[in-house]
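Per-residue structure
===
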Amino acid sequence: MAMEEQEPELRYLSGLGNTFSSEAVPGSLPAGQNSPLVCPLGLYAEQLSGTSFTTPRARNLRTSVPPPPSLSSAASSVNAQGRPWLLLALIRRWLYRIKPSVTHEPFHPREPTNGRLVGEFDRTTTVATPTQLRWRPADVPPEPLLDFIDGLYTVCGAGSSFLRHGYAIHMYAANKSMDGCAFCNADGDFLIVPQQGTISPLLSTGENRQEGLLITTECGKMLVSPGEIVVIPQGFRFAVDLPDGPSRGYVSEIFGTHFQLPDLGPIGANGLAAPRDFLSPTAWFEQAHRPGYIIVQKYGGELFTATQDFSPFNVVAWHGNYVPYKYDLSKFCPFNTVLFDHGDPSVNTVLTAPTDKPGVALLDFVIFPPRWLVAENTFRPPYYHRNCMSEFMGLIYGIYEAKADGFLPGGASLHSCMTPHGPDTKTYEATISRADANEPFRLSGTLAFMFESALIPRVCRWALDSPSRDPDYYRCWIGLKSHFSHDNGTAGNGHAGQNEKE
């Protein structure tokens, strides 16, 4: 069993890519096989596969295969560089449950539907625009009552959930818990970034924290606060409760692949996000009779419902490595330049969803955390940039280092493929005029992130028409003035270079 970490009333399994086992009732896991004739305690065996049966072992993921006897616990599932062993990256999971998940009525289109979810990004559903876009944070209204499902809306994306290639970027604003229903995403993996919650004291330290989401999954429960992220893999049924009031945040969704840790390359064995800091839930179940319980399934970007008479969270035990997990972003170990120039943002990648082309991501999750800035004779904020990748940014708290004004916590921006972007006028002028520009400076009180993709996003019409969209975003760069000067005073007069023939 892997090392366990504990929060009040919740226990977690530590490690990313590990093969875990967990029992809510001792003796409920079968010994020596996955599907015996009769399971312990009269449970049903059910497998959830995250990859095809014939995917090569190095890429085949499931929640079922126990580690070999010679390999045990968290130490067995990582290599010498602290990354998961490929031979154990089998993404499937065996569940031992009171009733199997197949026990439900037929699916029907959900009424009312959520018309702001998109799974196919083409001209019929979305708009292409190279314009720099920015949105102010949207308040969570007291009315109407919206749970996580109805409060979820797509902003942009690319590709197709049916063709199993692409991604979607959503935001959510919810003011009620999910009651009598569970959500299942058949299209892809969700990476959820809570941004707003209610302040409450930490029992362990007395410090304040924001309580965001209490997420119940078929593997158990997780408490996910702003400053943490959670990944719900494709096919898991889950419910989102708001223990302390309204919540809002960001969601990325990937089709046809799964998130993994980035390669460290010359960084070596340590740094960035450590596998041991990712936490998965321990087994928890409820046995109550729940007539009229609703399963809401997202399939091809559309919502369908089916009813059953029991809770889907009736899993007494499970084993495997296809599991939900969360990660505290304050545990990220950032790297930075220590002499001159500004490093590329890829050095701050927490998780990546790779494509078949080496080094090119379907989606990277990158953060800009508190850190020391020490580069000498260097413009330390992010540089002006045009990128073959497309960048969607959000701000969890604080002030983003490249935008002195206008980019607010809970807001977002989108800079698409080859669209210019960079620091606003105020940031640029303040940076180049600092008398202490070479002094070490600790950037604190801020946490921004980026979803970056090689695919060009199309934008939903409601996002373009949203009252939260900032139509004057472009003005933050209009004030940038020319600082060009030349000794002979010929600047701006079409002066030819010294090596050009007159």
